[in-house]
Amino acid sequence: MTTAAATIGDEAAKLDADDPLAPLRDRFLLPGGVVYLDGNSLGPLPAAVAPVLTDVVHRQWGTGLIRSWNEHGWWDAPLRVGDAIGRLIGAAAGQTVAGDSTSVQLFSALGAAAALRPDRPLLVTDPGHFPTDRYLAEAVAGRESLEVRHVAPADLDGFLASEGHRVAVVSYSPVDFRTGELYDMRALTDATHRAGALVLWDLCHAAGALPVDVDELGVDLAVGCGYKFLSGGPGAPAFLYAARRHHAALTTPLTGWTGHAEPFAMSPDYAPAPGIARARIGTPPILSLLALEAALTAFDGVDLAQIRAKSLSLTGYFLRCAEELLTPLGFEPVTPSDTARRGSHVSLRHPHAYGLVQALAAQGVIADMRAPDLLRFGVNALYTTHQDMLTAAVRLRDVVRDDAYDPAPQPSGRVV
Ligand SMILES: *Cc1c(COP(=O)(O)O)cnc(C)c1O
Questions:
Q1: Mutate to test the pocket of ligand 1, among 172, 225, 228, 344 (most ligand atoms within 8 A of CB)
Q2: How many domains does the chain have?
Q3: Does any domain span residue 181?
Q4: Does the annotation list 257 as a binding residue?
Q5: pTM for the full predicted model
Q6: Is residue 133 within 6 Å of ligand 1 at its C-beta?
Q7: pLDDT tens, 83-100?
Q8: Whole domain around residue 330: which residue ranges?
Q9: For residue 281, what is the domain's CATH number?
Q10: pLDDT (tens digit per residue) in 104-117
Q11: Of 398, 394, 386, 381, whose CA–CA distance to 322 is shortest?
């Protein structure tokens, strides 16, 4: 190592030694020899999941058969797992339901928002929003005769000053999935409310990564996924939060039978269940829900403020590594260094992002990229170490210095 790397190496050792969350890494089964920095796309396997799934499959399903809907709490799982997620996003019990994908939950939440503000014709979303959020905004707007306006969070105040009275809902993510920039949820929520509109937050990159406190902020609706920072496994169920004050008037566009007030009455007409249960749709994916429920125990006894402090320490440390080892080689950090504006991943710009991420993976460092030129390094305070960040930076430096990668762009259809 160079002297600089040796100095920041000492820093990594010290930060890890002083880390109160370090023992939590044992709650995950991370493969040996791998530095995993892609938990913001697919969280790793929590140790609690496999034993629970074995029991669910062999005993609950295999032996209990259909009786397990009652005897093992399958029927209530969407609300029970919803409440467990609620504890991580500052939602009191009874306002969060788990199930379906984020895309489906977005459709539900956008439709519900439009129905709560029927006299307002505009749906505001971020031009940089995740593609599915953008596509579904268009789809819902088409069905509800709304117009979509693409307004960046930084421009929201100005937009609302002239058009606020026409806005039904503002649909944003607190963290930009490309750059890792964190927006001011409180300021954006308050500005939206002053205009009389509703706010819908997509918490995919926030739930489990930082405190969001939806109740305290007065958020109207939120959605998020189960497989990123919540580590619920590939295709884990997503969640929908609706503030209690909206429940009585909440009508979602997907009025499935499990959201009915009397699902087993098999009534010909739909009547919504009281409370958040009306946001249920169809038969829940029990295996995935119970895997997610087990995964969430990795957060037991942990405070989101501690998670946030460590996440910022990891990303701040990685930005320092990048400055010393990588910016001289042509990398440009695009994630804000200001801690108030930084989510839980760091993105570096380099024209050969795809080939570099492949070369890093061959070296045991799993990160990811967003076309055309961003390398993303996600941290999860439950298991990531400062040493992981140093290893990633040093190996990335070596790959570039030794020209040991293929500069070809990302072929279509590849996940990473
Ligand atoms: C990951 C992510 C999604 C994913 O949606 P799926 O329906 O689970 O594929 C949606 N929105 C945002 C902001 C995301 O980060």
A1: 225
A2: 2
A3: yes
A4: yes
A5: 0.97
A6: yes
A7: 999 999 999 999 999 999
A8: 3-30+302-401
A9: 3.40.640.10
A10: 999 999 999 999 99
A11: 394
